[in-house]
Amino acid sequence: MALDQLKAFLEKMQSDPALKDEVLATSTADDVARIALKLGYEFSGDELLRISGKKVGKVTVIKNDLPGEYN
Q: What are the boundaries of each domain within the chain?
C-alpha cells in the first residue's frame, strides 16, 4: 500500500539528515516521490500532497504553493 510506503519514507527521513536536506531542496511532490523511489519506497506526488497538513512521526507534511507554479 502506497500510504505505508509514504509513512516508512517519512520515518526514514527523520533519522537521515542528508535525506531530509535533499527532500527540502526539492521543488515538487513528484520530485520527493522520485527520491523515495530510488530508495525503494513507492508512492506518487499526489499521494504525498493528499496528506498535507498531517503529521507522520515528527514530520508534518506541508504543501508549498510556489508563485508561477501550475498544476
A: 2-60
